[in-house]
Amino acid sequence: MSHSRTQARERVLRVLYQLDLREDLKPGQADALLEEASEESWRGEAKQFASALLAGVLRERDAVDAELSGVAKNWELRRMAAVDRNVLRLGAYELMFDREQVPPAVAIDEAVNLAKRYSGKESGGFVNGILDKVYRRAEQRATESPEPSQ
User: Fold this and answer.
1) 40 φ, ψ to 5°?
2) What is 13-49 written as a DSSP string?
């Protein structure tokens, strides 16, 4: 994926992190927070990608959190480091709901790199392990589901 999409994911992570930790912020403020996290020159495809990604993660957060809780054995989401939790939400959303736009290997790699960059040194491996399980479960569901009729 392009460097601009990597930057877009970083901006979305910052917004998810803020929404997660600050009780005074509401999901309806997400677009304004995304604008604040962006440079003046940041426009076009990357901005559209970030807006769609953020809206998707927020819309599907309950399903994403349920999936993460199902694969993160011995880990409660609320007890994970906030950065790790939100990197996982971002990656899991792409694996579960954005598979047509983002190849699974890219979604996992981008999430691992975000974890390495913004969290502790062990976070990359942790995120990789959890998202690999999310990917495998998503693949299993996709092969078990009948194709929609046309």
Assistant:
1) -60, -35
2) HHHHHHHHH-TT--GGGHHHHHHHTS-TT--HHHHHH
Please indicate, yes or no, if residue 120 is contained in any of the structural domains. yes
User: What CATH code is carried by the domain that includes residue 88?
Assistant: 1.10.940.10
* Domain assignment present for 150: no
Q: Which domain holds residue 87?
A: 3-143
* pLDDT tens readout for residues 5-23: 998 899 899 889 988 887 6
* Strand blocks (E) in 6-85: none
Alpha helices per DSSP H over 61-103? 61-71, 82-97
Name the pTM for this structure: 0.86
User: Considering just the CA atoms, what is the radius of gyration of the chain in Å?
Assistant: 15
**Amino acid letter for position 12:** V
**CA dist 86 to 37, 65, 73, 145, Å?**
16, 10, 17, 28
Residue matched to tokens 């460097």: 3
Cα–Cα distances (Å) from 87 to 49, 83, 142, 148, in that order, read 16, 6, 23, 31
What is the count of structural domains for the chain? 1
